[in-house]
Amino acid sequence: MTKTYKIAVLPGDGIGPEIIDQGIKVLKAVSEKFDVNFEFTGALIGGAAIDAEGVPLPDGTLELAKNSDAVYLGAIGDWKYDELDPAIRPERGLLKIRKELNLFANLRPAVVYDELVSSSTLKEEVVKGVDIMIVRELTSGLYFGEPRGIEKRNGEKVGFNNMFYTESEIERIIRLGFNIAMKRSKKLCSVDKANVLDVSRLWREVAQRVAPDYPEVELSHMYVDNAAMQLVRNPKQFDVMVMENTFGDILSDEASMLTGSLGMLASASITDKGPAMYEPSHGSAPKYKGLDKVNPIATIMSAAMMLKYSFDMDREAGAIEEAVKQVLKAGYRTYDIMSEGKTLVGTSKMGDLASEFVLKN
Ligand code: IPM
Ligand code: MG
Question: Residues near ligand 1 with C-beta < 6 Å?
Fold first, then answer.
């Protein structure tokens, strides 16, 4: 009997539900075409969970996630929660599930499709052929360091966070960066701010210490401000980049614009044990909610990453990647990547097309 892979589906807020629907369509096409079975079970997270249960990550959702083979997440957040106590804001649900599942590495591939070179705001010769893998540390650093807070000191308020890393936390993400580099072009750029931050000096020290274990990989170091500049000046110099949580949050949004749209950037949040989580890198875009307008490709490509990284289904993942390329080649575009002479389609149609191409191939 073929195994059934259990997928926890957490659509979240804003455009989350509509983009996740497209990913599920495509996964259903994959199971129709190949001999694989998926079982989808939905649960609430983020604002949707706050509305229903008063907390952004209900215990039942976490339980479901832990007992699944993979988690498929849409997006989180809505401005209607902006005034909430920070402890129960929608984003807290996302940070908590990352931490609870120990998803210490976030892989964000920024790949520029030939069909979309003209969608980027940068010059064609700068972006054509870009293929970067950003490896973002996801469960520590500035996002999680203690102490943190806002308090009164000497008659005024002070706010503080703490960029904190243990040596072992740095080592596991750096080693993962090296391992990914081994499977690609054997170039790893470690991004830090070692000229100013102590935590970055430790980061660099650890990177240099483990480097001899990967003699084939060429390791370089770059300050984060310079990396932000180099990403738009000459992105093709990069292959795999590894960095702290906040640096990765910022640089991955920047890298997405090389590809033409934030709507193209998939992501995988992985761990060494237990289920991984797959989600687009973009947010919940509440103003587009329910309009059948946004680009579901990042979410569809996140499903491909799920098949590849969690289920070892390289062939099936390849079928999704190929289908997306063919949809673009056939000239279909959502509004964010639209250009003259192409066919404008909505979210749902884009999902249908990707599914059709999976079945056709
Ligand atoms: C991301 C998002 C999240 C983050 C938000 C929604 C908490 O920006 O996944 O990049 O900051 O990590
Ligand atoms: Mg972000």
Answer: 76-77, 91, 94, 249, 281, 283
User: What are the structure tokens assigned to 13, written together?
Assistant: 């807020």
Omega within 30 of 0 (cis) for the link into 147: yes
Task: Classify 131-257 by CATH class.
Answer: alpha beta
Q: Where are the domain boundaries for CATH 3.40.718.10 in the chain?
A: 1-109+264-361, 131-257
Residue 189 confidence (pLDDT) above 90 = yes
Instruction: Looking at the CA of residue 94, tell me the nearest atom of ligand 1.
Output: 7
Class of domain 1-109+264-361: alpha beta
249, 256, 277: which to mutate for ligand 1, most atoms within 8 A of CB?
249
| Residue appearing with tokens 């920024």 | 110
Please give the Cα distance from 313 to 291 (Å, whole number). Answer: 33
pTM of this prediction?
A: 0.95
DSSP 3-state of 150? strand
Q: Tens digit of pLDDT for each residue in 266-325?
A: 999 999 999 999 999 999 999 999 999 999 999 999 999 999 999 999 999 999 999 999
